[in-house]
Amino acid sequence: MSSKISIKQLAKECGCSTATVSNVLNSKGFFGSKIKDKVLKAARRYNYAPNPSARGLRCGKTELVGVIFYKPNADIFISEFYLSLMRGLQRKLSECGYDMILSEYTDSMLEDCIQPSFLIKGKADGLVIFGGFPKRAVEILASVKIPTVMLDTFSENCDSITTDGARSTEAMMSELAALGHKSAHYFAYITEDYNTDSRISGFLSGIAKYGFDRRRCILHRNFKTNDGACAELERMLRSRKKPPSAILASNDSLAHSLLEKAKSMNISIPSELSIAGFDDTAIATRCNPPLSTLHTDIEKLGEMGAQSILRRIKNPSAKIEHTFLFSEPIMRGSVSVPKTAAKKKKKK
């Protein structure tokens, strides 16, 4: 293996400046293919790689972004939504020469008011708070003065990018009303989460705006898991009360579980019960019948998060920006005209 070489020696061999070598190796700026190939071949020959620590000391930047998630609200290793969001975020950061530090914020850290070690040690230029967090956790993380973006959640005190849950859910309520639905139940997890609160507010406003029967529109938020939601659905369907004609769920995974549970109880979907989700993840088209949902461009959401944190790192004193993405209703086979509305049409 060749002996170590400094960036000055590498630049001298390539016949260019050290700045040019640095920019080529860090994919910054535009260069002719000739000089680019020359630098890359020489770097490979001498096994040269930029020293990130030294570069950080020189420019006061680590070129790292911390990404932190709270597992009760964002299980990023099994959730289709968060895996797609992570792809968009990572790809855009990588294109701009940044790497990520991924860290979980735990309940014990929250109880002890502890910050992640990478924040305390100043190892990141910026922080992306990923998915829903308890308000107290956000306050603890915000106490470290570092450029911060809330991605898929919201805070007044820093940049945020998330779905417009209220307006989007209200749009789904409009679609259901147009089909003749008058009763709907909403299923959402009990954990504290801005997105869930926003989507529920859209459900409630849709009840009033589109003429639903308020007495037959109920919110179910007494469970932590999909299994708990299915148990709640079974209790509801086995009760003597008249069931709703439609169910909305706060995400596609939950909607899919409810759909399968209803089918296991010999409830016909959608003729006896319509079900709709939120996000339009891959599971929505794998359902039988395919799931009606609200479409979110998830990878775009992640890319926008990357752009936002890099903008904030570059200009920490810029005005705080909040971005809300509308999710369009996508109507598939899990939703149809309710039986009562169908009977009225036949009589006419």
Structure report:
- The protein is of the alpha/beta class.
- Helix content is 45%, strand content 14%.
- It has helices at 7-14, 18-25, 33-45, 52-59, 80-95, 107-111, 117-120, 135-142, 165-179, 194-209, 226-238, 252-264, 283-286, 298-314, 339-347, and strands spanning 64-69, 99-104, 126-130, 148-151, 159-163, 184-187, 218-220, 246-249, 274-276, 293-295, 322-325, 328-330.
- The strands form 3 sheets. The protein has a 6-stranded parallel β-sheet, covered by helices on one side. Strands 7-6-8-9 form a 4-stranded parallel β-sheet.
- Helix 1 crosses helix 2 and helix 11 crosses helix 12 (252-264).
- The longest helix has 17 residues, at 298-314.
Write a concise keyword list for the protein shown above:
alpha/beta, six-stranded parallel β-sheet, 348 residues, four-stranded parallel β-sheet
Describe, in short, the structure shown.
The protein is α/β, with parallel strands linked by helices.
Structure annotation, total helices: 15
Terminal Cα span = 87 Å
What's the number of extended β-strand segments? 12
| Major sheet strand order | 2-1-3-4-5-11
